[in-house]
Amino acid sequence: MLQITCPYCGPRDETEFSFGGQSHIARPDESVDDKTWGNYLFFRDNPKGIHYERWCHTQGCRQWFNVARSTVTHEIKAVYGMLDPKPEFES
Amino acid sequence: MPSNASIPLQSSKTAILADKYSFLNLARHALSRHQNWGQVWRSPELKSSYDVVIIGGGGHGLATAYYLAKNHGITNVAVIEKGYIGGGNSGRNTQVVRSNYFYPESSDFYDRSLQLYEGLTQDLNFNLMLSQRGIMSLAHSRHEMETQRRWANAISINGVDSEVMTPEDIYRIEPSLNPNPTYPIVGGFIQRRGAMVRHDALVWGLARGADALGVDIIQQCEVTGFNMDGGRVTGVRTTRGDINTEQVGVAVAGHSTQLADMAGFRLPITSMALQAMVSEPIKPVLNSIVLSAMIHVYVSQSDRGEIVLGGGADVHNSYAQRGTVPPMEHNVRSMLELFPWMSRLKLMRQWAGVVDISPDTTPILGKTPVSGMYFNCGWGTGGFKAIPAGGETFAHTIAHDDPHPLVAGFGLERFYTGALIDEGAAAGVAH
Asked: What is the pLDDT of residue A18?
């Protein structure tokens, strides 16, 4: 069970949150070719290490935010705002 | 596994002939108190070059090697495995095999797989303990029943067996189901050919079969990189030295992304932990495999008597082979909703495997941006049932450098053309 510190509500159980997948994905311009568009839609980072991901406090304040988390130990390294740059960690 | 260090290793072909599992040989070995059974497969030294290297000694990798040798006569093959045979997802699944899929592409493929399973015990001369007790899907509302009737009809149109069931039919098969559940059972459907297979026997049987045809199975050998020449693979770097090869088949499930990274391309794969658990063994009480998509659990009983339960994957990316508490609680709660009497059972083991989930829950099998390199991945939560056909079609794909017709739609191109196969039935329960 993860304990996630919502930036607005404080530490809560994982079950209050929804996982939103990889963060920091920029939508490409609509004029791009199929290859670029396919990559944008379907291809995600899948690191064995630090993953930069979105979570939503669905059963609390309903706010989205970012988390940097290890996919091996599940340790949460950082919680930061949707528009903040991603903090760098050694993977 | 029968093994005896004092017995000199025989050549593979004579070994399997001498040790063919039969009543006659059982009687013969009984005379020497079963002390002289040979090793089930060899432990050869890694050679410096092979025609084909298969990475991953799980079910898919071993089946691929077996069918490469059996169907295509390609026997100069190595299967390299970083752990041991049966220690990865092949030993972490819930042993269910079925072909009740919705789309024709899936249905054709998975039914081929089930047909191969039906003959594999004889083919491999290894008892897989295939038990076709039927897989029963429950519906808990009128609307869910309509969806399941459509699903069952689609399966029938695809030429696969399925029968719509009334609550009476269901309770006749499973009298110990909760007679008064919170979400009433209003019907369902069954695939009677749905089965359980002893998963260890499958990988041991495939390893023995491949080995007997000349395939080298190398355990404790981890891949560290690839040698490439102008977009072509020329070799595999491992912890036991370099291997020269023109063709590499990768079947490593949850770690496919790491292998693709080494080869320099991306895959649309997300790795997640999928857990399962078993109770203490009890006398036979379940007659089928019971699945509820809405309550989100499936329950069966292994041949050793354990109640086996599984459900959805953990919600976030993970490479931890242990699973988290919330899905475990959910699985147990769901099991108790269907079978309240199971509250008296103790859970004996819980585990997780790292599964490779693709965006449309259809596997990715075929060629890659690197010439001579082929990937077999994206099975998500349902790779076990796909093993025989996955191996057969992957072997064909490697041997012909062209996808087998059954998996023509499973290539990476679909994520650019949009021809997805959005198989909601892939898990039976939602991901």
From this structure: 97
**What letters, b where the CB count within 10 A reaches 16 and e where it falls short, cover B253-288?**
bbbbbebbebbeebbbbbbbbbbbbbbeeeeeebbb
Burial class from Cβ neighbours inside 10 Å (0-12, 13-18, 19+) for residue A31 reads: exposed
Could you report the predicted ipTM of this complex, rounded to two decimals? Answer: 0.95
- CB contact A15 to B (< 8 Å): yes
Question: Residue B430: enclosing H or E segment and its boundaries?
Answer: none
Which among B391, B388, B394, B384 is positioned nearest to B426, based on CA atoms?
A: B384
- Running DSSP on this structure, what letter comes out for residue B319? -
CB B147 within 8 Å of CB B195: no
* Pair type for strands B306-317 and B270-281: antiparallel
**Model pLDDT for residues B20-52, shown as the tens digit of each residue:** 899 999 999 999 999 989 899 999 999 999 999
One DSSP character per residue, B242-293 reads: EEE-SEEEE--GGGHHHHHHHHT-----EEEEEEEEEEEE-SS---SEEEET
Distance of alpha carbon B200 from its chain centroid, rounded?
Answer: 11
Contacts of B267 in chain A (CB under 8 A): 43, 46
Q: Which of B316, B330, B333 has the highest number of chain A CBs within 10 A, making it the mutation to test binding with A? A: B316
* List of residues 6+ apart from B96 with CB closer than 8 A: B135, B194, B195, B196, B289, B298, B300, B384, B385
Q: Which helix (H) or strand (E) segment is B309 a member of? A: strand B306-317
DSSP state of B120: H
* Burial (CB count within 10 angstroms: exposed 0-12, middle 13-18, buried 19+), residue B407: buried
